[in-house]
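Newbie here. two chains, one complex. Structure please?
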Amino acid sequence: MLRASAVCEAAGFPTSSLTCEGFVRQAAVTSVGIGMPNIPIALVPGHIGTKTVKELREDVLGVTMDEVVANLTVMPAAKSVIAEPRAREIVVRGGFREVNRYFVEHEYSDGLPIVPPTLEDVEEFLRYTDRDPGESLGTLLPDKRAATVWSIAVNGVMAGCRPEYMPILVALIEAMCDPQYGVEHSGNTPGADTLIILNGPIIKTLGFNYTQGALRDGFLPNTSVGRFWRLYLRNVAGFLLHQTDKATFGNTWRVVLAENEDALAKIGWEPTSVEMGYAAGENTVTIARYTGGGSLSSVSGSTPEEMLPYLADSVQRFNNWQITFTTSHGNGTLRPLAVVSPIIAQTLAQAGWSKADVKRYLFEHARRPAYDFERQLRDWNIRGVWDLKDDAANARIPKVFHESDDPNRMVPIVWKPEDYMIVVSGDPLRNNAYVFAHNGFLGYPTARKIDLPGNWNRLLEERA
Amino acid sequence: MTRETTDGYYEAHWPRSPRQERVRELAPRLESLEGKTVAQLWDQLFKGDVVFDLLEEGLKARFPGIRFVSWREFGSTHGGEEKEALAALPRRLKDLGVDAVISGMAC
């Protein structure tokens, strides 16, 4: 909303931005990032979603309206921006505890101890990329800071990464800067967290866990790279709790999910990197944000027809309100992810099924009644003005969502089979799966190739 | 007895990088809303349709000559097509003779 207001102000139109009480502080911080620290807001007391019509009327006419008039007719006082350190400045000198106390007090840390980012350690990380430390990979909202290679190394050190993870960290921030991903939405209230999917021989080279416990902390590369992501969101993009990160609940960062490419090779399924447009065998990262999901215990059966109804049912159930991204509002950006263990994938492949076949099955079977689809969004959620018939008639969503007026017709939860993502990982000999509920355009799947430095092999030999 | 420290000594660098946005000026404000045209921009979330109806009612009572351009004219300002929608706004507002904008909803 403030981004829209800023566009109008820059074009010469005075604005008033309607802001619920819980978002006033977020608006104040975000306004600095958009370069208009005094852009005015009009308060809507409390939260609009829980008010009666009478209460809303009293608040809008009694509080909000006066602020709207003032916003549009009185120039807000100028606000100065607080001075900050310079790029690469040493901000604290002292012992481990002193440095960590300083980083916590200045909100540079996630609350766990960080490794102090000294020049020696940062420079060691920089040896593992051919890029210039001063190069900016993009500008990140809401703080609108430069995503420099230097800052990647600093946050990588802090997270406890090893220097040889640096090529992965650079690729991750390249992906974070891609407008398709939508990093600016990372502070939205459902509190989604990014999942990093890793592909390529670098999985084994650097010792990532890709088998049992693949989504659990406990392996240095998986855990520290996941932590790096969250630290970078905090320190460079600028997402801080109680300010710009408005996660209602949130959760700790996700560890890196490395795909089991040995299992894929055995059954002839392509890795996720290929689905994302890269050649098999290339090192890649794929990022997407997920609001939640859950595990499926004991997906039983010896054929796809016996196994997949359970998976399709769970995909539909776990992606509940997230179907808002399937509508015109979300422009069809819902991309549910199913992580299946190697033994499940093997059973499906033995019957001749490819990943594409599984996706087609999910598209055709992970469905819900049209009335239920509409009720979820229009009556229970936040979409006041909307219906499937109208969207389909105006070509804003595919026709499959309105093939008749029967409210009991079954409609898919994505636009096309390819919207599903399937990753193979986890305990090779356990028939469990995990479904992730996707966050649509607020964290759309985005991939990047991992560029290794020219002297990569020599550097690894040095470390060995 | 003095306890030997093992805390080490570090010179730690700033983990952020400079902001890239300079402070920009806001648009000039109006002297009054009387006789002015006000556009409604909505992300089509959180009962904004109800709020805009209430604001229209209240503002028309206070400024009888005020005119509104409904949020229906603009589509959503948030969502999968946000970037395209925002890029088109300045031209659209000018073509519609808009003087000021009310934008919602941050909830």
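Moderator note: The two ends of chain A are 51 Å apart (CA to CA). Chain A has a mean pLDDT of 95. Thread marked as resolved.
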